[in-house]
Amino acid sequence: MTEAAISIRALAKTYKGGKRALDGVTFDVPRGQIFGLLGPNGAGKSTLINILSGMVMKTSGTASIWGFDIDERPRNAKASIGIVPQEILFDPFFTPYETLELFAGLYGVPKAQRKSMELLRAVHLEDKANAYSRTLSGGMKRRLLVAKAMVHSPPVLVLDEPTAGVDIELRQQLWAYVRELNAQGVTVVLTTHYLEEAEELCDRIAIINHGRLIANEPTRDLVNKAQEKLVQVTVDRDLDAPPAAPCFEKIVLKGERVLEITYSKAKVNAGEVLAAVSGAGLGIVDVSTKEADLEDVFLSLTRAA
């Protein structure tokens, strides 16, 4: 199916007091992808997610989930999405199994079709099925939230900062499960402040800043936008100060023999940079380069905006 999993058109939200959280945002989340929604704190990401979930009323624009307009067919839209919020929210006196059974019932899932134990196994909580939820660790609670969002088998899963405060091992387990869900056809929307995570996981990334969409491209295309590159050059003698050259955007002396040179790939190439080092009368002993990553692009775009 070619229709978008989530389609947003000219979406705007102005809170009481005049705070404009979203300013005419338009983009589609393609079906079957892991889609990154990034932006600085206060950029409007949570407002957008809360509009999709029905927790916040939009000021103007349209949004649809799995082809269902959130205003015209709200029940169908809500049934098509599962949301894992930033905040850890559930009744501490319910067990994980009871929590999943309760929410499956609220979504109208017949008892014979519920898969509470299957979900607990998938998020490695099977052994905690009958423990009080308040006794779970922070990482376990986050995984329970993921299972809770999947009780009605929605085709779209939204993860809002799902790995905040989770240790490395649990984070890897969570991502393994997310990849598994995606392989089964679930469209995943991810917000995270761990940019290396987004770069590794996401097929496509949109960036919001000050309520406006400033980028929406395949991840690799976005990373390739970085214009600054860094080369580290070890020279054959001790230096008191780094040499200067017009092709260097910035040069820093790291130790007595290591130069860290930043240059713009739009203006020069690595060969010209190394030639400038040689032209300063220095012999080159070793060279290493640092490729641009999503963090470079993110900082460049948000600062410009």
TrEMBL record:
Entry keywords, A to Z: ATP-binding, Nodulation, Nucleotide-binding, Transport
Keyword Transport tagged: yes
InterPro entries tied to this protein: AAA+_ATPase, ABC_transporter-like_ATP-bd, ABC_transporter-like_CS, ABC_transporter_ATP-binding, P-loop_NTPase
Regions crossing the membrane: none
Source species, domain of life: Bacteria
UniProt xrefs under Gene3D superfamilies: P-loop containing nucleotide triphosphate hydrolases
GO MF: ATP binding; ATP hydrolysis activity
Statement: the UniProt record of this protein carries the keyword Transcription: no
Domain ABC transporter, first and last residues per copy: 6-235
One Pfam family, short name: ABC_tran
Family: Belongs to the ABC transporter superfamily.
Protein name in the entry: ATP-binding cassette domain-containing protein
Organism: Sphingomonas horti
